[in-house]
Amino acid sequence: MTTSRAVCVFFCLLTLSCERSPAPPASPSATGPVATVNASAGEGSPIDASWARAIESQEDAELAGLAAREGARKLASSLGDAKRDATARRALVFAHDVDEAFVVISERIAKASALEADLDLLLQLTHRPQRFGERLDPEGDARVLTVLEEVAVNAPEPRARGKAQTLLTRLHERGLAR
Question: Which residue, 16, 30, 43, 125, is the most exposed by fewest CB within 10 angstroms?
Fold first, then answer.
């Protein structure tokens, strides 16, 4: 199979996996992985079918589809949710708009709830290509840089300080400035 044919097949499969079909409501008699995840989600935080498929399979195609549907900011907002955190972290690397997640992740870094994990995620996301064009949120960019400067100076762990300093360098290279 030629490379161009393989790419075409991949995008066709990705398009098919992104199509939405109305999900039937979960009922006590429903079976299968989607019903299992929906039933375990509880009343307070329903999980739709796309999240359920990604959580259950953890396959790259499902994660990429979830990233395309949700977007980076929405995925980053799911960090810290017990049911969605691990899947959101894995799906974020497939998002085409990763820069949109920087503000949300930096707010989590400021709270230091999962400092090392959030710094690692942000480091991973800075390897992704950025969108072409002008930065759209200069105030958000300034907040991200302020948080990372604070961590680079005041974090209790030297590893966290070093990661924050590396992130500052990478983000300046991406065009984040005050």
Answer: 43
User: 178 is written with which tokens?
Assistant: 């005050």
Q: What pTM did the predictor assign?
A: 0.71
Distance separating alpha carbons of residues 78 and 121, to the nearest angstrom: 14
Do residues 26 and 49 lie in contact, with contact meaning Cβ atoms separated by under 8 Å? no
Q: 69 with 50: CB under 8 angstroms?
A: yes
If you ran DSSP here, which 8-state letter would residue 65 be given?
A: H
Q: What is the pLDDT of residues 69-87, one digit of tens each?
A: 999 999 999 999 999 999 9
Give the whole-angstrom CA distance, residue 60 versus residue 51.
Answer: 13
Q: Reduce the DSSP state of residue 174 to 3 states and report it.
A: coil
Structure-block tokens of residue 53: 């498929």
Boundaries of every domain in the chain = 46-96, 97-178
- CB burial string 121-145: b at 16+ within 10 A, e below: bbeebbebebeeeeeeeeebbebbb
Residue the block writes with tokens 């290509």: 129
